[in-house]
């Protein structure tokens, strides 16, 4: 038997804010999930993205402590359909009040690339091949 990666988990301070952020990126997350203790969204490729609040984690792991603010909890990357979509999604997210980490730019490796922070400070990359 060989283990295979099946899911990515996010530990969040504010579940509602985190789910709203990822809905803006096109994830299909039911509206009633905002009040659930654990949330999962299955991505088009079958991978799952899961959320738990810090309180839920502490309920089964009393020794859990919040990660230091000087490090990243997680980094995710979302492929866009083209350079213009990278710019549009970045503008939409930062316009909604999310912090831009890197404004869209043309990377030396041939991609339009940008980074925003989710409500918990996790870096979320937006990218597309340059035409």
Can you offer a commentary on this structure?
This protein has 131 residues and is α/β, with parallel strands linked by helices. The protein has a single domain, classed as 2,3-Dihydroxybiphenyl 1,2-Dioxygenase, domain 1 (Roll). Helix content is 23%, strand content 33%. The protein is built from three helices and seven strands, in the order βαββαβαβββ. The chain has helices spanning 15-24, 54-60, 83-95, and strands at residues 7-12, 38-42, 48-53, 75-79, 100-106, 111-117, 123-129. Strand 2 and strand 3 form a beta hairpin. The radius of gyration is 16 Å and the shape is globular. It starts with 6 loop residues before the first strand and ends with a strand. The model has no long low-confidence stretch (mean pLDDT 88).
């Amino acid at each position: 038997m060989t283990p295979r990666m099946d899911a990515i988990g996010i530990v969040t301070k504010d579940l509602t804010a985190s789910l709203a952020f990822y809905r803006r990126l096109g994830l299909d997350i039911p509206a009633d999930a905002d009040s659930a203790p654990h949330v999962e969204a299955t991505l088009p490729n079958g991978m799952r993205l899961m959320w738990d609040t810090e309180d839920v984690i502490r309920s089964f792991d009393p020794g859990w402590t919040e990660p230091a603010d000087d490090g990243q909890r997680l980094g995710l990357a979302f492929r866009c359909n083209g350079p213009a979509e990278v710019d549009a999604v970045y503008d939409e997210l930062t316009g909604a009040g999310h912090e831009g980490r890197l404004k869209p730019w043309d990377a030396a490796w041939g991609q339009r690339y940008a980074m925003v922070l989710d409500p918990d400070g996790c870096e979320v990359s937006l990218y597309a091949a340059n035409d």
